[in-house]
Amino acid sequence: MSERLVTSRLVHSLRYEWSAGVAGGAVAGVGMGVVFHAGANLMPFVGALYGWPTVVGGWVVHLLNSVLAGIVFSIIVSHPWVSEQTANVRECVAAGVVYAAAIGLLSTGVLLPVSMQALGVQTFPEPLVPLPGLLGTFLVVVSVGVAHVVYGVLLGATYATVQGRLRAGVETAESMP
What letter would DSSP give residue 33? Predict the structure, then answer.
């Protein structure tokens, strides 16, 4: 195979991998954001972490983070070993859920406490718990957990669907004279 053909296929491959990651991250971000917003009204809190403690601020930064996470997902699953394990929609959904769980553990278990300590903040910037006591804390924990599962399912399903459609279009275009 010529070097030019290999380079062309690599460029096309990266284009549909990244495009699928962006689309998957955006769709998954909307789904996760709905759970955050409806489940425990967490969007002002998400925005407050970035200095924009409003629902709009929360949505903006959440969707940006979701798309970036989708791109990282596309990079990970495009690795040859991982791509062999994610050959269909079901396997991509499973990979998305595992990835979203890892993001959830990393962001809430490591990054949030470290950033709060670095900023010298002892309490959350917004009232996090919508209901008082243990019930409110339970609602937040369940909302965050469900939101990450929703993100993973939508990320994997959208990624696989978009990647399959784009790949089919690239292969059709490459096979043309």
Answer: H
What 3 state SS string does 41-108 have?
Answer: CCHHHHHHCCCCCCHHHHHHHHHHHHHHHHHHHHHHHCCHHHHHHCCCHHHHHHHHHHHHHHHHHHHH
How many domains are contained in the chain?
1
Burial of 139 (0-12, 13-18, 19+ CB in 10 A): middle
Q: Which domain holds residue 22?
A: 3-175
Q: How many CB atoms lie within 10 A of CB 61?
A: 18
Per-residue pLDDT of the chain (177 residues; tens, 9 = 90+): 556 554 555 555 556 678 889 999 999 999 999 998 888 788 888 888 788 889 999 999 999 999 999 999 999 998 888 877 788 899 999 999 999 999 998 988 887 777 777 767 666 554 555 556 666 667 777 888 899 999 999 999 999 999 876 555 544 444 444
pTM of the full structure: 0.79
